[in-house]
Here is the input.
Amino acid sequence: MTRTKSDLIADRKRLLGPNVATFYDDPVHIVKGEGVWLWDADGRKYLDCYNNVPVVGHCNARVVDAIARQSATLNTHTRYLHDGILDYAEALTDTLDDSLNTALLTCTGSEANDVALRMAEAVTGKRGIIATDATYHGNTALVSQLSKSNVPTVGFGLDQYFRFVDAPDSYRNPDPDGTKFAAAVAEQIAAHEASGTGFAALVVCPYFLNEGFPNHPDGWLKPTAKVVRDAGGFLICDEVQSGFGRTGTHLWAHEKMGVVPDVLTLGKPMANGHPVGGLVTSAETMAAFRSGYRYFNTFGGNPVSSAAALAVLREIQERDLVENARVVGEHAQARLRDLMAKYDVIGDVRGSGLIFGAEMVTDRATKEPASAYTDRVINAMRQEGFILSKLGRHKNALKIRPPLVFSVDNADMLFDGLDTVLRDTPRE
Ligand code: PMP
Here is the structure.
């Protein structure tokens, strides 16, 4: 069945219910992708400056081939012996600190975080969790409690176990050495202990992508990790967004931030769009979790998923896409700074590798967020053929997070387009 755009919008509402979000005032009907390019149903081409899931490019030939070949051979679950999950677990753990040597595969990042919280409980014997107040870690009953801006009204009364700290914000509330953040975490640890819940874990994205990717020097999380360890808690690093080379300096953002997590959770780009998530931890933590609970995930780590995930990791490694992210990201930020010199609506430019963006303000002195203007810019960019988005507490930061195969030429095209849109989009 081929629906018109208005039929698609109406049928989504009828068949999927209300509140199923789309991007843009004029949603895009995408029908094809290749590399960094997307095509809509009218054959119009868009530069994808946003999607991190197709990390090695839309419809990457190596990943497509791995999925097709394994699908044509066998797909089953992990209760049979198979090389696939082991080859992947070995390749993945080889990229990590020696203590992160045991993996568990899921289908989503939400499940991975859900298991990570239960691992913290299994090892510490406590349940108090801390997160930032402007993040997202997933949608299970347990981890949806971590999204302070969108805590579900139904959720089995779990909110007693969750406490929050202000999300770091290098633009409005600088904390150059991470000690303010560490002190805020210490305060919430004390509150958990005082309430009788006890402190089990801090969960953070080490590059704070959902919070608006504040500019922090390398090693910034060290004081926080110390506070967490001194209190006997777990440091859970959610690298669903920041992992697999996104920041361009390291394969993993926790390395950049100078820490080794107790549990590392993964998702989104892990298999280029095939639903794979997972976590890596120490053998002891895995044993503590698995001895208390016979965890099984029907689809997690199946031969097709494992083949897809291995193809993605090898593609990142063999094409040196982390280095590409660094080179293109540096060029992109230089271009953004040129635009900042030209347009005073840009108050701050930040990022690392292929996560970068600009914070838009109505006044550089007061830093008043230009949230409505940012929305108009995103929508105008979509009309010009550029897919990007916004994020941050005030939804006024341009969020640019393309596949890691994004090139310097692609970045030039994007910023030429942004220059035109900033010139032509009225402020009021
Ligand atoms: N953690 C982070 C940091 C995320 O951004 C997301 C998804 N946006 C998730 C976890 C949840 O992943 P999933 O949608 O695969 O459950």
Q: What stands out?
A: The domain at 61-318 is CATH 3.40.640.10 (Aspartate Aminotransferase; domain 2). The mean pLDDT is 96. The pocket of 4'-deoxy-4'-aminopyridoxal-5'-phosphate is lined by residues 108-110, 113, 136-139, 205, 210, 238, 240-241, 267, 277 (CB under 6 Å).
